[in-house]
Write a structure and sequence with these properties.
3-stranded antiparallel sheet; alpha+beta; Metal Transport, Frataxin, Chain A; 5 strands; single chain; globular; about 100 residues
Length: about 100
């Protein structure tokens, strides 16, 4: 379950789960719920090919998930609806 993940795998998972991205000096990913951009965001560096445990931990904090939940999100065992439901239940996203 743990271990490094390829940046393109993370990017594809975010886009398929309801995130949009803005390309600046980093790729900024924002979660969209009911057509509105939320405060849930993270970024992927243009130069990064792989993200290790330390960066995935930081990314999970930015999104408001545990590291295990982030791995489930990236590995596609958590879909976009489950993610949104989880964040609403935790009070991090309002509908």
């Amino acid at each position: 379950m743990g271990g490094p993940r390829k940046a393109r795998t993370i990017r594809a998972a975010f886009l398929s789960k309801g995130f949009i991205f803005d390309e600046t000096h980093h790729e900024m990913f924002w979660l969209v719920v009911c057509g509105k951009k939320t405060s849930i965001r993270t970024r992927i560096s243009h130069g990064a090919k792989e993200y290790g445990d330390q960066l995935l931990t930081l990314m999970s904090r930015q999104i408001g998930l545990s590291k295990t939940e982030l791995y489930r999100l990236v590995d596609c065992s958590m879909d976009g609806e489950k993610l949104k439901t989880l964040l609403v239940e935790q009070g991090k996203v309002r509908l």
